[in-house]
Each structure stands twice: as C-alpha cells, then as structure tokens.
Amino acid sequence: MSTIRLTAAQAMVKWLSVQMTEDGERFIDGMWAIFGHGNVAGMGEALHAYRDVFPTWRGQNEQSMAHAAIAYAKAKKRTRAMAVTSSIGPGSTNVVTAAALAHVNRLPLLIVAGDVFATRRPDPVLQQVEDFDDGTVSANDCFRPVSRYYDRISRPEHILSALPRALRVMTDPANCGPATLAFCQDVQCEAYDYPEAFFQPRVWHIRRPRPDLDELARVTSLLRSAKRPVIISGGGTLYSQAEETLGEFADKHRIPVAETQAGKSGLSQDHPMNFGASGVDGSAAANTALQNADLIIGVGTRFQDFTTGSRTLFGQDAKLVSINIHGYDAAKHGAESLVGDAKVTLQALSEMLGDHRADEPDMGARQDWLRAVDTYCARPNDQAAKPTDGQVIGAVQRATGDDAVAMCAAGTMPGALKLLWKPSQGGYHMEYGYSCMGYEVAGAMGLKLGAPDRDVLCFVGDGSYMLANSELATAVMRRIPFTVILTDNRGYGCINRLQTMGCGGEPFNNMYVDCNVEVQPEIDYVMHAASMGAHAVKVGGTDQLEAEIKAARSRSIPTVIVIETVAKDFPGTGLETTAGEHGFFWDVAVPQVSDRPKQRDRFDEYLTQIANARLLN
After folding, report:
1. Which UniProt key words apply to this protein (predicted)?
2. N or C: which end of the chain has fewer CB within 10 A?
C-alpha cells in the first residue's frame, strides 16, 4: 500500500478538498478561520499549503463566521456546506452558539475546534479549561449536546475514520447537523503515513428515503376521509427541493397550505393554495383553516410552538399526520407518522390518492387576508412620522423584484415578515429555530455567497445589530453586496411588548428609556457602518427608503439603510388584532403571584389559554 507522509492537519485539508457533490463541486466550500495558538501552527499551515485548491476565508468573530457558513448551507438547501476552524478556549466556545443554531435548524456545519495538547506535557496551557475531577474534559466538551457528531482527534490516524463519519452526518437528510472535530493542537502538527487511497475524490450522494407502504396506506385513508385537510409546510420541503411537488399536490387535491418560518416561500405568495403563515405569527386565513381542519398534514416541520400556537391552534378532535425524514420529528404531537423524503413521499401519496379532492377551502378568507396585508403595508401619507415595521416591509417590497430574498432572525421583524412579506418562490430566509440575535448581518453575507444571483435584503433591529455587526467589514473586504435595513426603535421593542402585553409586566430594562442609565444613548449607526467601509445612509420616511433600496442594487459592497420606527405591535403577535389579521396564543409562563392587579389578571387569562392545549407528545 502506497502512503503519503503529512501532518494530521495537512491530511485533513487535503481530504476535504476532494469531497465532492453530485454536481462536481466541493461539498465543503472552504473554511472560515480565525487563528490562535490552538490552530495557527497546524491548521493555519495546512490551509496555506492547500490554498490554491481549498479556500480560506477570514472573519471577525468565530460565532458570526459560523453563522455565515450556516446561511450558505441553508441557501444551498444542504447540498453544500462550509467549515469553521478556531483556536482553543474562547475561540472554540464562541462557536458553540452557532453550533446550537445549526443543530436546531438541521443544517450542516463542520467545526474544527482547536483543543489542548493530547500529550498533556505543557498542561495547563493558555486558555485551557480544567475539570477538577475529570482529566479528559476540555472546553470543547461544550459542543457535545449541540453537535450531531462529536469526536476528539487525539491521534493523527483518527481522521481516517472521523472525517468520513462527520461528512456522513452532514450529508444525511435525516441526521443532518453540525459535526465537531475537537483537534488537539499538538496532533494537528504530528506526521503520519496516510494511505494515498484516502485522498481519492469521493462523491457524496444525498439519499431520498421512500415511505413505508403500510404508513402510506394509512395516511392515504385518512386523507380520503377528511373533509377539511390543511397542510403545514416546513423547512424540510425546501431541503428536499419539493417546492414544485408541494404546489402540484395542493392544487390537484385542493388542500390549502400554511407555512412555518423555515417553510415560507416554498410556495410563492401568488400560489392559490398558499394561505399564509401558521400559528403565533400567523395569518387569519391560515389560522382559521387550521382551527377548523379535521386533518392537519405536516410536511417537513417539527410542529414547533410558534407553528402550533403552543399546541392550542388545532382542534382537539383534529387528526395529525407528519411527513418527515426523521422518525423523531414524524411522531411528535401524537401524529400518524409517514417517514420519508418530502418530495418522493408527496409524489407517492398523490399517486395513491388519484383524483381525490377535498372540499373547497375558503378562498374568500385568503383574499381578505391579502387585502389586509396590502392595507397594513401601504405607503403612509405622513412621510415625516416614524413608520411601523409593516410600512417598512411594504416599502422594501415595492422597491424589489422577484429575485429579492428577505432575511432576518430575531426580534419583531421575523413575525412581521412571516405574516406580511409576499415572496416569490425561494424569496425568504429566516433563522427562527434558534431565533439567534446577531445572525442577521453574517447570515446575509453567507446567503449572498450561496445565492449570488438573488437580491439579499437583511432586516435587523438596532438590538441585534449592536450584538453582532462586524462581518460587515468582511463583506466589504470581499465585495459581497447585500442591503441591510436597520430599524431603530431605541431598544428591544419586541421583548418590551411581550413583557408588558403578553406577560402582564411593567416596562423594564428593554427600551433604553426604561433602563437604569444616566444618559440615553445616541448611536450614529450610519457613521458606525460607514467606518467599516459599507455605504450607509439614514432615511426619514418610506419614500426615501424605497429610493435607497433601488440604488443599493448597483453597488458591489454592502449598503446599510437606517430608519427610525415606532415601537408598535404588528398583526400576528397574538397580543392584539389589527388590520383584520390575528395571531395566536404563545405559551410564555406568567408569574402566579404578584402584588399588581394587571399581573394577576394576566395569569387568570393564561390559565384559560393553556387549558386548550393538546397534550399528546
């Protein structure tokens, strides 16, 4: 057997460079890196040696680099991914939040985290976390609960099995998620005689499991007997690339479709069976249909609390079916499981249903909802007044075309966008499984890398922007253009509403005005973004916003548009009714004991609401 002598880090990079997709592209499209003493000598030297065949990207923060990588994988519908390497200690633990985000959202991410010395010769090294009772523990053990695959590379030959295992997980549609390789820093530099065959190019095929015939027959029978079925489409629809199949299925069998955050834009907004968002931030059309449904068919969804109104949205007698690639998700809420790939399962189900069609859904409710959205998002007459988030969304929608992708992650905007943004197919990118503040700017960069022909619109509140904005500088350096709409309401407006309206509390520590501070901050976001090289401007109304959105499309660098907004509720929070729309209950615990009548009244309301929850798990 012929061998080649390489360091473990060199072998890792060489191997990654020849792992291919069915389309002839690298599955791992390069590695994001910030070097420190735990990876600069090993991974740093190796990445330099193979820089002509495996690119390295420099970022500003390990967490946000990983967010960019995750957004790239999401844009590619999990057919390609990126890697992130860090030093030991804080460099590694900075990635833990991103690992959790990828884990919750079922998205592939390869994490190569620098670790302590395998020999333990210089222990304790700089930044080493020591466990007083367990000598095998390091800071990287934090990755264990948020990784789909975890391994510690403490011998150079470990990568012979660890790397294929990591990519097996990342390319498995059922178990997809982050793979973490904690790479001892001395082992990165150790040499080993690796088999040359290990470095032969390999094509990774993403399987499409077909459903069990007995499960298929049971679900077919349920659908045939249902009068008012409704589909809830989740992210699995997009990852299966089943968008066209879903649209054809809904049309053929006359079944309305509601969408989750991850599933939105699987159908374009003008598809006649698209009834809009489901649940807490749902449309009146979708939520009413779901309340009245006798059968609810989940497609690629986890039935998360926002989707189900914390289990209060569906009628107690409604039956549930869950089409999902993983049996764990397919069995949630006591659903009838139909385990399989979304695309082939919908095709098989449609074939068994033949020409069967459900009763005519309430198409008038759908039109009423769309008209209400247009009203809520209409251009305000008073351009001097601060607009609502809905009016901002309307302005951005009017200034963009079918190639636009709206993206966001946390705060008020995710719910507003889910309810009000009217996308073309594929025109929506939301990280809401983990709802991670700080994902937005880095995610927009990763999304643009993954979808270079789309017009990327990043909605971010002032709170999330302050949390993580430094990858603007990276996007400027790499000439990655996208548009940031920075809505400034001077605080955490979303949580302030939840605190005061949803939970019966008093305004406290969310809006700057309600904080224990000596001086109210006056942050110049335009100067801040411009200092990193972005084109930045502040607008005074939605007319100016529309003009700047259009102008941004001609630039090769990010554009940041700042607009002050009113901290006002929007339809879909479940806290009020506006413009003919309504959301649904969200279970956020309310204190049982309080001196304030408002708080006690809210707890009584809470007890009434949770009494309606379905208890099946």
Report:
1. Hydrolase, Thiamine pyrophosphate, Transferase
2. N
The owner of tokens 């990591």 is 166
DSSP letter (8 states) at residue 412: S
- List pLDDT tens digits, range 105-120: 999 999 999 999 999 9
Q: Please, are residues 324 and 339 in contact by the beta-carbon 8 Å criterion?
A: yes
Q: How many helices (H) and strands (E) does the chain have?
A: 24, 22
- The continuous run of DSSP H or E covering 192 comes out as strand 191-195
Give the Cα separation of 288 and 275 in Å (integer).
Answer: 10
- CA distances 289 to 243, 310, 491, Å, are 21, 17, 36
Residue 49 is encoded by which pair of tokens? Answer: 């040696």
Claim: this prediction has a pTM higher than 0.85: yes
- Determine the angle formed by the axes of helices 389-398 and 363-376, rounding to 10 degrees: 100
Q: What is the DSSP letter of 86?
A: E
- Which pLDDT band holds residue 616 (cuts at 50, 70, 90)? low
- Tokens 């695959």, residue located: 149
Highest mean pLDDT among 78-82, 277-281, 371-375: 78-82
pLDDT, position 575: 33
**CA 251 vs CA 261, 274, 366: distances in Å:** 22, 10, 15
> Which runs of E-coded beta strand occur in 386-473?
404-408, 428-430, 455-461
Identity of the residue numbered 402: D
Q: Which domains does the chain have, with CATH numbers?
A: 3-203 (3.40.50.970), 213-366 (3.40.50.1220), 377-564 (3.40.50.970), 587-617 (no CATH)
Run of H or E including 497: helix 493-497
Strand partners, 81: 28
Compute the distance between CA of residue 277 and CA of residue 284 in angstroms, rounded to an integer. 9
Cis peptide before 571 (omega within 30 of 0): no
- Contact between residue 457 and residue 405 where contact means Cβ atoms under 8 Å apart: yes
Task: Please state the separation of Cα 120 from the chain's center in Å.
Answer: 39
Whole-angstrom distance, CA of residue 211 vs CA of residue 221 = 15
Contacts of 383 (CB under 8 A, 6+ apart): 540, 541, 542, 543, 544
Mean pLDDT of 512-540: 94
348: Cβ–Cβ under 8 A, 6 or more apart, which residues? 210, 211, 216, 340
What are the respective helix, strand and coil percentages of the chain, to the nearest 5?
40, 20, 40
Nearest to 232 by CA among 176, 295, 175: 295
**Residues shown for the chain:** 617
The three-state secondary structure class of 180 is strand
CB 361 within 8 A of CB 369: no
Are 432 and 443 in contact by the 8 Å Cβ rule? The answer is no
